[in-house]
Amino acid sequence: MADHYQTGVKMTYRGKLLVAGPILNANPVFTRAVVYIYEQRDDGSVIGVILNKPSEFKCSSLGLLKDIPFDPQLDETFVHKGGPVSETSVLLLHTNEWQSTNTLQSGELAMTSDMLMIEKLSTGNTPKGWRMFAGMSIWTEQQLAREIEERAWLVLDKPSNHSIFDYNGDDQYLKAVDLCSKQTFSKYL
């Protein structure tokens, strides 16, 4: 992958999944992590959220902090640990048919971070698919390219909404590894 930089071709990570390789097993943040990359900036920043690391903090607790009662159906929905950067930032990854005042479109998905999203969720006004995060993961393009070259990450192109929202924890990691292997073998079949 680093060869792309040497030839002047810029790698596009936005909309891809990063799946942690065994080399990251010693890293408590990224062990068996599945990261969705939702933004790649002109300054070289690559930004994503860890999909499969739920916290013990319920989404409805965010409403309590702001005196907003949540729909009881959402009481068992948990905030995920999006990454080690800006851990107090609250982000909502969701399908793009839904939006709020601060929504960044990212293909079939979008990322929102504002107070209105919490108010909308509290009333049951939710996207078709969504997951809430505290914090994010950020790399420079060169740093991520180096980590991929060192086999710290497998890269999954064009993940489905099903693979992003319908799995969690270790199940999501195993599904992502399976999808990466199918993607790799499809190049040779």
Describe the structure.
The structure is a single chain. Strands 1, 2, 3, 4, 5, 6, 7, 8, 9 and 10 form a ten-stranded mixed β-sheet that branches. The radius of gyration is 17 Å and the shape is globular. It has helices at residues 2-6, 59-65, 115-122, 141-149, 161-165, 169-186, and strands spanning 17-20, 34-40, 45-50, 54-58, 78-81, 85-95, 103-106, 109-112, 130-140, 153-156. It starts with a helix and ends with a helix. The protein has 189 residues and is of the alpha+beta class.
Integer count of domains: 1
Helix content: 25-40%
Any idea of the CATH topology? VC0467-like
Proper CATH architecture: 3-Layer(aba) Sandwich
Low-confidence stretches: 1-8
Pattern of helices and strands: HEEEEHEEEEHEHEHH
Broad CATH class: Alpha Beta
The DSSP helix count reads 6
- Total beta-strand segments: 10
Main sheet makeup: 10 strands, mixed
**Radius of gyration, Cα only, in angstroms?**
17 Å
The secondary-structure class comes to alpha+beta
Question: Quick gist of this model?
Answer:
By secondary structure, the protein is an alpha+beta fold. It contains 6 helices and 10 strands; from the N terminus they run αββββαββββαβαβαα.
Q: How is the secondary structure organized here?
A:
Layout: H1 2-6, E1 17-20, E2 34-40, E3 45-50, E4 54-58, H2 59-65, E5 78-81, E6 85-95, E7 103-106, E8 109-112, H3 115-122, E9 130-140, H4 141-149, E10 153-156, H5 161-165, H6 169-186
Parallel strand pairs: 5-9
Antiparallel strand pairs: 1-2, 1-10, 2-3, 3-9, 4-5, 6-8, 6-9, 7-8
